[in-house]
């Protein structure tokens, strides 16, 4: 009797695992995300091209314009945080140019 119960439990586990695996395989479909259109145009200036190619791959331009006016040192800290903490793929030269652009156009300029 114990053998029959153990066999039944084992068989049930195998069937359940197989059914789960099939549901995972059959539900794997390509998914897409449609992002809303940008609602903010950033100010023109030196470094805008770096911002539009480096920053907006992770967040919208709205996020930049919502920040308080920060000094150049503070913007540099924000850019470095995006690189070191968030993993933004930005070179040191581009980071400097981005921080300069942000300080000049969305900061105190100093």
Structure summarized in a few sentences:
The protein is mainly α and 110 residues long.
What features would you describe in this structure?
The chain is an all-alpha fold and 110 residues long. It has two domains: 1-31, no CATH class; 48-106, Cytochrome c-like domain (Cytochrome Bc1 Complex, Chain D, domain 2). Helix content is 60%, strand content 0%. It has helices spanning 2-27, 48-54, 61-65, 72-84, 92-106. Helix 4 (72-84) packs across helix 5. The N and C termini lie far apart (83 Å).
Radius of gyration: 26 Å
Q: Please give the domain count.
A: 2
Question: Which secondary-structure class do the elements indicate?
Answer: mainly alpha
Q: Quick one: CATH superfamily of the largest domain?
A: Cytochrome c-like domain
Count of beta strands: 0
- Helix and strand element order: HHHHH
CATH architecture of the largest domain: Orthogonal Bundle
Helix content: 55-70%
The portion of residues forming beta strands comes to: under 5%
- Report the mean per-residue pLDDT as an integer: 83
Q: Sketch the major β-sheet.
A: none
Mass-distribution shape: globular
- Tally of separate helices: 5
Distance between the termini: 83 Å
Low-confidence stretches: none
Question: Class of the largest domain, according to the CATH hierarchy?
Answer: Mainly Alpha
Write the layout of secondary structure elements.
Layout (H helix, E strand, L loop, with lengths): L1 H26 L20 H7 L6 H5 L6 H13 L7 H15 L4
Helix pairs in contact: 4-5
Overview features:
110 residues; mainly alpha; 5 helices; single chain; globular; Cytochrome Bc1 Complex, Chain D, domain 2; 2 domains
